[in-house]
Design a protein that fits this description.
This protein has about 160 residues and is an alpha/beta fold. It is about 30% helix and about 30% strand. It has a 7-stranded mixed sheet with strand order 1-7-6-2-5-4-3.
Protein backbone atom coordinates (compact mmCIF):
# COMPACT_ATOMS: atom_id res chain seq x y z
CA UNK A 1 0.00 0.00 0.00
CA UNK A 2 1.29 3.49 -0.70
CA UNK A 3 0.42 7.11 -0.31
CA UNK A 4 1.95 10.34 -1.63
CA UNK A 5 2.01 13.66 0.15
CA UNK A 6 3.10 17.05 -1.12
CA UNK A 7 5.27 19.20 1.09
CA UNK A 8 5.45 22.95 0.48
CA UNK A 9 8.41 23.88 2.64
CA UNK A 10 10.72 22.71 5.39
CA UNK A 11 8.19 23.58 8.10
CA UNK A 12 5.82 21.02 6.53
CA UNK A 13 8.63 18.47 6.54
CA UNK A 14 9.07 19.17 10.23
CA UNK A 15 5.35 18.67 10.91
CA UNK A 16 5.34 15.35 9.09
CA UNK A 17 8.57 14.13 10.74
CA UNK A 18 7.15 15.07 14.14
CA UNK A 19 3.90 13.20 13.54
CA UNK A 20 5.92 10.14 12.56
CA UNK A 21 7.99 10.53 15.75
CA UNK A 22 4.78 10.56 17.84
CA UNK A 23 3.67 7.37 16.13
CA UNK A 24 7.03 5.66 16.68
CA UNK A 25 7.16 6.70 20.32
CA UNK A 26 3.98 4.66 20.85
CA UNK A 27 5.47 1.51 19.31
CA UNK A 28 7.42 -0.72 21.66
CA UNK A 29 8.76 -2.98 18.94
CA UNK A 30 11.64 -2.44 16.54
CA UNK A 31 10.92 -0.12 13.64
CA UNK A 32 12.86 0.32 10.40
CA UNK A 33 12.51 3.35 8.11
CA UNK A 34 14.24 3.68 4.76
CA UNK A 35 14.69 7.23 3.46
CA UNK A 36 15.43 7.34 -0.23
CA UNK A 37 15.89 10.28 -2.58
CA UNK A 38 18.63 12.28 -4.26
CA UNK A 39 21.30 14.33 -2.51
CA UNK A 40 19.61 17.35 -0.96
CA UNK A 41 16.14 15.78 -1.04
CA UNK A 42 15.84 16.18 2.73
CA UNK A 43 16.56 12.74 4.19
CA UNK A 44 18.87 14.04 6.91
CA UNK A 45 16.66 17.06 7.57
CA UNK A 46 13.71 14.70 8.06
CA UNK A 47 15.76 12.44 10.37
CA UNK A 48 16.89 15.46 12.40
CA UNK A 49 13.33 16.63 13.09
CA UNK A 50 12.26 13.10 13.90
CA UNK A 51 15.11 12.50 16.37
CA UNK A 52 14.59 15.87 18.03
CA UNK A 53 10.87 15.23 18.47
CA UNK A 54 11.68 11.84 20.01
CA UNK A 55 13.67 13.76 22.60
CA UNK A 56 17.22 14.05 21.30
CA UNK A 57 18.78 17.32 22.35
CA UNK A 58 21.75 18.65 20.47
CA UNK A 59 23.10 18.11 17.02
CA UNK A 60 22.07 15.42 14.58
CA UNK A 61 25.07 14.89 12.37
CA UNK A 62 24.81 13.42 8.93
CA UNK A 63 26.44 9.97 9.19
CA UNK A 64 27.87 10.25 5.68
CA UNK A 65 31.44 9.42 6.73
CA UNK A 66 30.76 7.25 9.75
CA UNK A 67 27.99 5.22 8.02
CA UNK A 68 26.06 5.07 11.28
CA UNK A 69 25.36 7.42 14.18
CA UNK A 70 23.96 5.81 17.34
CA UNK A 71 21.58 7.45 19.82
CA UNK A 72 19.82 6.30 22.96
CA UNK A 73 16.54 8.03 23.72
CA UNK A 74 14.33 6.91 26.61
CA UNK A 75 16.24 3.61 26.85
CA UNK A 76 15.67 2.87 23.20
CA UNK A 77 18.54 2.39 20.77
CA UNK A 78 18.32 4.45 17.59
CA UNK A 79 20.66 3.99 14.65
CA UNK A 80 20.83 6.52 11.85
CA UNK A 81 22.60 5.11 8.81
CA UNK A 82 23.75 6.87 5.66
CA UNK A 83 25.02 4.28 3.19
CA UNK A 84 25.97 6.74 0.45
CA UNK A 85 29.66 5.87 0.76
CA UNK A 86 29.21 2.16 1.20
CA UNK A 87 31.30 0.42 -1.42
CA UNK A 88 29.60 -2.95 -1.41
CA UNK A 89 26.57 -4.29 0.48
CA UNK A 90 28.72 -7.09 1.94
CA UNK A 91 30.57 -4.49 4.05
CA UNK A 92 27.42 -4.34 6.14
CA UNK A 93 28.00 -7.91 7.21
CA UNK A 94 31.48 -6.99 8.49
CA UNK A 95 29.83 -4.22 10.52
CA UNK A 96 27.58 -6.80 12.17
CA UNK A 97 24.48 -5.28 10.64
CA UNK A 98 22.08 -7.77 12.22
CA UNK A 99 22.88 -6.49 15.69
CA UNK A 100 21.58 -3.07 14.74
CA UNK A 101 18.22 -4.40 13.59
CA UNK A 102 17.36 -6.16 16.83
CA UNK A 103 15.27 -5.64 19.95
CA UNK A 104 13.14 -2.51 19.93
CA UNK A 105 15.68 -0.41 18.03
CA UNK A 106 14.54 2.32 15.70
CA UNK A 107 16.65 2.23 12.54
CA UNK A 108 16.72 5.03 9.96
CA UNK A 109 18.55 4.30 6.72
CA UNK A 110 19.46 6.88 4.10
CA UNK A 111 20.51 5.43 0.71
CA UNK A 112 19.12 2.01 1.60
CA UNK A 113 19.51 0.88 -2.03
CA UNK A 114 23.27 0.65 -1.38
CA UNK A 115 22.56 -2.15 1.07
CA UNK A 116 20.26 -4.09 -1.23
CA UNK A 117 20.20 -7.81 -0.55
CA UNK A 118 21.63 -7.44 2.95
CA UNK A 119 19.28 -5.05 4.74
CA UNK A 120 15.96 -6.39 6.04
CA UNK A 121 12.66 -5.07 4.69
CA UNK A 122 11.64 -1.72 6.19
CA UNK A 123 8.40 -1.11 8.07
CA UNK A 124 8.13 2.18 6.22
CA UNK A 125 9.79 3.45 3.06
CA UNK A 126 9.84 7.20 2.44
CA UNK A 127 10.95 8.27 -1.02
CA UNK A 128 11.54 12.01 -1.08
CA UNK A 129 11.72 13.88 -4.38
CA UNK A 130 12.20 17.53 -5.28
CA UNK A 131 9.11 19.33 -6.52
CA UNK A 132 8.82 22.23 -8.96
CA UNK A 133 9.56 24.95 -6.41
CA UNK A 134 12.80 25.24 -4.41
CA UNK A 135 11.34 24.04 -1.09
CA UNK A 136 8.66 21.74 -2.49
CA UNK A 137 8.97 17.98 -2.02
CA UNK A 138 6.83 14.95 -2.62
CA UNK A 139 7.07 12.10 -0.15
CA UNK A 140 5.96 8.71 -1.33
CA UNK A 141 5.22 6.43 1.60
CA UNK A 142 4.95 2.69 1.37
CA UNK A 143 4.48 0.13 4.07
CA UNK A 144 1.90 -2.01 5.78
CA UNK A 145 -1.64 -0.62 5.52
CA UNK A 146 -2.12 -0.22 9.27
CA UNK A 147 0.99 1.93 9.52
CA UNK A 148 -0.01 4.15 6.61
CA UNK A 149 -3.54 4.49 7.93
CA UNK A 150 -2.28 5.65 11.29
CA UNK A 151 0.04 8.12 9.62
CA UNK A 152 -2.52 9.09 6.99
CA UNK A 153 -4.77 10.46 9.68
CA UNK A 154 -2.03 12.94 10.45
CA UNK A 155 -0.67 13.70 7.02
CA UNK A 156 -3.98 14.41 5.34
CA UNK A 157 -5.33 16.55 8.17
P1 LIG B 1 19.76 14.63 2.05
O1 LIG B 1 20.05 14.04 3.39
O2 LIG B 1 18.56 14.02 1.38
O3 LIG B 1 20.95 14.62 1.12
P2 LIG B 1 19.60 17.14 3.48
O4 LIG B 1 18.52 16.94 4.48
O5 LIG B 1 21.00 17.06 3.94
O6 LIG B 1 19.36 16.16 2.24
O7 LIG B 1 19.43 18.55 2.76
C1 LIG B 1 18.17 19.05 2.38
C2 LIG B 1 18.34 20.55 2.18
O8 LIG B 1 17.15 21.07 1.57
C3 LIG B 1 18.54 21.29 3.48
O9 LIG B 1 19.45 22.34 3.25
C4 LIG B 1 17.15 21.84 3.80
O10 LIG B 1 17.22 23.04 4.55
C5 LIG B 1 16.62 22.11 2.40
N1 LIG B 1 15.16 22.06 2.26
C6 LIG B 1 14.42 22.97 1.58
N2 LIG B 1 13.12 22.66 1.58
C7 LIG B 1 13.02 21.50 2.27
C8 LIG B 1 11.91 20.67 2.58
N3 LIG B 1 10.65 20.95 2.20
N4 LIG B 1 12.15 19.56 3.29
C9 LIG B 1 13.42 19.24 3.67
N5 LIG B 1 14.51 19.99 3.41
C10 LIG B 1 14.31 21.11 2.69
MG1 LIG C 1 21.71 12.94 4.12
Amino acid sequence: MSHTITIKNEADTQIFAESLADFIAQQDTGFVIFLDGDLGAGKTTFSRYLLQKLGHEGAVKSPTYTLVEPYTIADRAIFHFDLYRLGDPSELEFMGIRDYFSGNALVLVEWSEKGAGILPEPDLLLSIAHGSAETERTIHLSGQPHILQLLGADVTA
